[in-house]
Structure formats: structure tokens, C-alpha cells
């Protein structure tokens, strides 16, 4: 695990990203200099933005999702989509590049194939390294008190044959920890982390001794938060919110975030204006009723505002007046509505809420007042999500499918509170890139 601006990134995925960028740069640079005949300087100037774009496209197509390596079909589709996106971006890169007199458009296919070759090569090397066990971290686990649940098993596949962790030592709380967890023995066993179950953890002197030897010590809850990128709602301390990044946000960061929202919102409205007009006409022709759907939602600090979306359901969808959870294959959804939901076009009018200041691009999903009241009584810390503006997209939205039950709301809250605790501009950027993946592959739509 590597911490980047407070967010935990899997070390193996970070290594893969660096390998992608480096190999992509080498492949494109060699192509431009050796085959195209560009001078070294111009080749380097063009290869750098292409290498950066390779990493961004990889994130946008799911190439850095660990699940992709377990599903060959998903990996191949992601590589194919990445190639198509690279073909679209290369003319833009050539246009804004400071290299003069370079006709990159004549070599789009060659550069794209060089990038894809680099991506495939790094993944073959990564798969070989995983099979050899070089990317597996050996850990020691000290269980909690007798009868306490062994929560490490919540991480599906984390400690299995194909997982990232191998439990080399599994110790009971009554074991001779001073001897079994002696730093010399841990180093001999090639153990890189000690995970202590239960709130008590390890004795302080022993923990300091282990960490002094360069071996990380984490309690079980912290370990799961780092690995799963969500918090344990039931074990949050009462004062956790006061120490969160969202509450401690400075004026400069807040101003930058607001300025970015206004800029991106304005560009998005102008860029999608033809699509918005076509969608409005299609909705009007498909079913009777208004083009836009207006609904009260709860924003920052519990303030209620009016949310704008394209209407995707019949006008009598809630004829009884009571809020109803959306469901799979919901028969209230119109024909056009089903398409704009799958493609997330129905969400675009929320940009108006962003420009008005009701919402941000990144944040927890805005919920209806009736659901907020209901869930606030059932789920601990549910109302803590109102410390930031709701967002069109968010950490929960890109990590968990559309929620339609109390249990779904509980799981999404675990991701939302992780975002609030570790909020940063870097994490916002990761979420925006991941949102492209969600839209492209229609993940979690209903």
C-alpha cells in the first residue's frame, strides 16, 4: 500500500502505472525517432504527453482494476477501448504539443499500436510476477480477543491463492508475542506487515520495536480501510469527522475546487449542447410530460435544493406520492429513459446544479429528504455525509452499483465517509477518471 495525498493506492497497481508510462514512452519515442525520423528532442516532446495519456486512459478503461486480471475477456475489452480512445486523443496531443512541424496524424495507427504493445507487455510481465509470488506480501495476523470475528476474511481473495497477501503467521492473542513477533524472526520469515485484530492492538513497546525494523504495524480496521477503500461505519470514533480532510479543507483548496467546477461545468454544457437538444426532443416524442425532472434533494448541511435531470420515467411513476426505490428493469422507465440512464445522459442537467452551487462534480450522491430521514435513523453516521456538497459522481458511485435498498445505502455510505475522511484534489481526479470507465461500460446503471 502506498499513500498518495492521503489516499491508499495499491503498490502493485502503482508499479504497473509507472511501468506503463515508462514502457509507453520508450515505445513511442523509438517509433518516432527510428521509424518516422524525428529529431531526438521532438520525439521526446511528443512521447511524454502520449505516455501520460496512456496512464489516464488506462484508469478510464479499468486497466488498473485488479479484477481485470482475473477476467481475460474484461482485460481484452479494456485494451481495445483504450486503443480507440488513444486514436481520438492523439490528434489533440499533436495539436497542443510544442513540437513544430510534426504531422502526427500520418502515424496515428503506428503510435496507437506502440502504446497497446507497451500495455500488453507490462501486463504479461505483471501476470508472470504474480504467478511467481513476487507481488505477494507475507503478513502476520494477531487475532482479537476470544470470540471476536476474524474480519480479514472480509477481503475476498486478499489472502487466497491469487491474492496479494499470504498469512505467514496466524497468532492467538494469548501467544508469546514478544518471541513470535521479534523483528529478527519477522525479517527471516520475510514478513512485511503485522496486522493486529481487535481495538487493543499490540503492546506499544512491541509495536515500536517492529516498526523500528521497517515492518508496518496496522490494526485490523485500518488494514481493511486501506485495502477496501471504505470505512468501517460501526467502528468509527465519535470525533472522527473533526479530523477528516473535508472539515479541514483550506480556502485555497475550496476556491480551486469551486473554480474547477464552474470551468468544467461550462465546458460540458457547451460541448454537449447538441446532444442535450436531441435528448429533449426524444423525451418529448417518446412519452407525454415535461423534458426535465425536478426533485427535492438534500445538500450540504442538510439544505434542501431542487435537482434537475432529464425525465426517464413516466409522469405517474410515484402516483401514490411516497418515494420508491428504483429497481432492475423498472417498468416505470420509458424507452428513451432506459437509454439515457444506461449512458448517464440523464445526469447531465445536474451541471446546472453545479453551476448554481447546490452541488459539486465530486461528492456523495444527493438523496431525497424522505430517504435521508429514514436512513439517518437506521444507519450510524449517515448524516455525516452532509458535511460536503453532493456530487454528480463520487467515490461510492465508481466503486459500488446503484443502490436500491437500506443495505446498499449502508455500503455506499462506507465509501462516502472514506472520501470525506481522505478528500483531496488528487482523489477527486481519480474519481473523475474512473467515472469515464463507469459510463463507458455502463457499470451499475438501472
Architecture overview:
With about 450 residues, the protein is of the alpha/beta class. The protein folds into 3 domains: about 1-130, no CATH class; about 135-230, Rossmann fold, CATH 3.40.50; about 250-440, no CATH class. It is built from 16 helices and 10 strands. It has helices at about 10-35, 40-60, 70-95, 110-130, 175-180, 185-190, 205-210, 220-230, 250-270, 275-285, 335-340, 350-355, 370-380, 395-400, 405-420, 425-440, and strands at about 1-5, 5-10, 135-140, 165-170, 190-195, 215-220, 290-300, 305-310, 360, 390-395. It has a 4-stranded parallel sheet. Helix 1 (about 10-35) packs antiparallel against helix 2 (about 40-60), helix 1 (about 10-35) runs antiparallel to helix 4 and helix 9 packs antiparallel against helix 12 (about 350-355). It is globular and about 75 Å long.
Amino acid at each position: 500500500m502506498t499513500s498518495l495525498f492521503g489516499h491508499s493506492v495499491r503498490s502493485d497497481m502503482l508499479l504497473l502505472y509507472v511501468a506503463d508510462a515508462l514502457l509507453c514512452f520508450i515505445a513511442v519515442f523509438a517509433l518516432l525517432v527510428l521509424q518516422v525520423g524525428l529529431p531526438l528532442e521532438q520525439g521526446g516532446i511528443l512521447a511524454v504527453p502520449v505516455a501520460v495519456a496512456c496512464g489516464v486512459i488506462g484508469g478510464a478503461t479499468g486497466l488498473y482494476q485488479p479484477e481485470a486480471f482475473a477476467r481475460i475477456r474484461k482485460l481484452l475489452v479494456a485494451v481495445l477501448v483504450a486503443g480507440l480512445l488513444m486514436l481520438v486523443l492523439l490528434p489533440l496531443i499533436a495539436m497542443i504539443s510544442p513540437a513544430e512541424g510534426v504531422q502526427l496524424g500520418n502515424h496515428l495507427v503506428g503510435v496507437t499500436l506502440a502504446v497497446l504493445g507497451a500495455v500488453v507487455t507490462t501486463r504479461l510481465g505483471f501476470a508472470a510476477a504474480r504467478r511467481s509470488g513476487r507481488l505477494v506480501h507475507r503478513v502476520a495476523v494477531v487475532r482479537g480477543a476470544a470470540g471476536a470475528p476474524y474480519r480479514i476474511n472480509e477481503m475476498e481473495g486478499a489472502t487466497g491463492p491469487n491474492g496479494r497477501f499470504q498469512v505467514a503467521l496466524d497468532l492467538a492473542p494469548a501467544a508469546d508475542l514478544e518471541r513470535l513477533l521479534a523483528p529478527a524472526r519477522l525479517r527471516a520469515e520475510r514478513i512485511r506487515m503485522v496486522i493486529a485484530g481487535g481495538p487493543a492492538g499490540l503492546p506499544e513497546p512491541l509495536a515500536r520495536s517492529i516498526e523500528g525494523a521497517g515492518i508496518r504495524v496496522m490494526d485490523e480496521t485500518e488494514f481493511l480501510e486501506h485495502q477496501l477503500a471504505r470505512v468501517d461505519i460501526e467502528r468509527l470514533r465519535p470525533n472522527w469527522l473533526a479530523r477528516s480532510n473535508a472539515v479541514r479543507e483550506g480556502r485555497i483548496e475550496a476556491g480551486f475546487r469551486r473554480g474547477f467546477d464552474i470551468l468544467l461545468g461550462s465546458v460540458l454544457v457547451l460541448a454537449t449542447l447538441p446532444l442535450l437538444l436531441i435528448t429533449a426532443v426524444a423525451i418529448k416524442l417518446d412519452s407525454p410530460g415535461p423534458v426535465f425532472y425536478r426533485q427535492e434533494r438534500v445538500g450540504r448541511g442538510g439544505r434542501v435544493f431542487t435537482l434537475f435531470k432529464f425525465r426517464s420515467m413516466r409522469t405517474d411513476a410515484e402516483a401514490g406520492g411516497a418515494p420508491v426505490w428504483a429497481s432492475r428493469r423498472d417498468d416505470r422507465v420509458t424507452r428513451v429513459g432506459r437509454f439515457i440512464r444506461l449512458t448517464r445522459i440523464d445526469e447531465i442537467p445536474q451541471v446546472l446544479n453545479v453551476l448554481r452551487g447546490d452541488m459539486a462534480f465530486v461528492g456523495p450522491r444527493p438523496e431525497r429528504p424522505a430517504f435521508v430521514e429514514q436512513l439517518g435513523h437506521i444507519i450510524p453516521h449517515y448524516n455525516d455525509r452532509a458535511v460536503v456538497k453532493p456530487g454528480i459522481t463520487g467515490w461510492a458511485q465508481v466503486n459500488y452499483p446503484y443502490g436500491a435498498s437500506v443495505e446498499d445505502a449502508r455500503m455506499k455510505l462506507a465509501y462516502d465517509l472514506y472520501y470525506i475522511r481522505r478528500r483531496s484534489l488528487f482523489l477527486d481526479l481519480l474519481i473523475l477518471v474512473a467515472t469515464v470507465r463507469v459510463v463507458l461500460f455502463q457499470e451499475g446503471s438501472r
